Structure to design on (115 residues):
C-alpha cells in the first residue's frame, strides 16, 4: 500500500470507530456496533503502525512524544468506552464530549507533531 492509501484507510477507520463508539454509547443494547468498534479500533492501530513505518519510525522505538500521546489516547478510547458501556450504561452518553476533546487532541498531534 502506498502512503495515501494507508492514510485514507487510517482516517476512514478512525471515523467509523468513533461513529460506532458513539452509537454504542447512546444505544448500549446493540451488539453490532460493539463488534464494529472493536474491529475498527484494531484497524486504527494497524494502519497507524503502517503510517509510522512510512515516516521512518521503527515499531521497536524509541517513539517521538506525539506518537506516545496518540497511542495513549487510542488506548483510553479503546479501553474506557467498552467498560463504561458495560458497567455504567446510565452515564455512557456523557462520554461524548470528552471523546470530542480526545479527537481534537489526536488530530492536533497528527497535524502539528508538536513534541
Amino acid at each position: 500500500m502506498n502512503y495515501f492509501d494507508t492514510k485514507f484507510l487510517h482516517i476512514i477507520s478512525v471515523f467509523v470507530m468513533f461513529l460506532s463508539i458513539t452509537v454504542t454509547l447512546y444505544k448500549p443494547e446493540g451488539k453490532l456496533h460493539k463488534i464494529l468498534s472493536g474491529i475498527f479500533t484494531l484497524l486504527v492501530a494497524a494502519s497507524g503502525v503502517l503510517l509510522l513505518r512510512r515516516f521512518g519510525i521503527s515499531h521497536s522505538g524509541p517513539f517521538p512524544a506525539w506518537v506516545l500521546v496518540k497511542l495513549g489516547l487510542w488506548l483510553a478510547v479503546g479501553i474506557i468506552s467498552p467498560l463504561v458501556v458495560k458497567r455504567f450504561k446510565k452515564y455512557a452518553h456523557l462520554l461524548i464530549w470528552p471523546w470530542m476533546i480526545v479527537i481534537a487532541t489526536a488530530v492536533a498531534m497528527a497535524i502539528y507533531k508538536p513534541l
Summary: The helical segments are 3-26, 32-54, 65-87, 96-112. The longest helix spans residues 3-26.
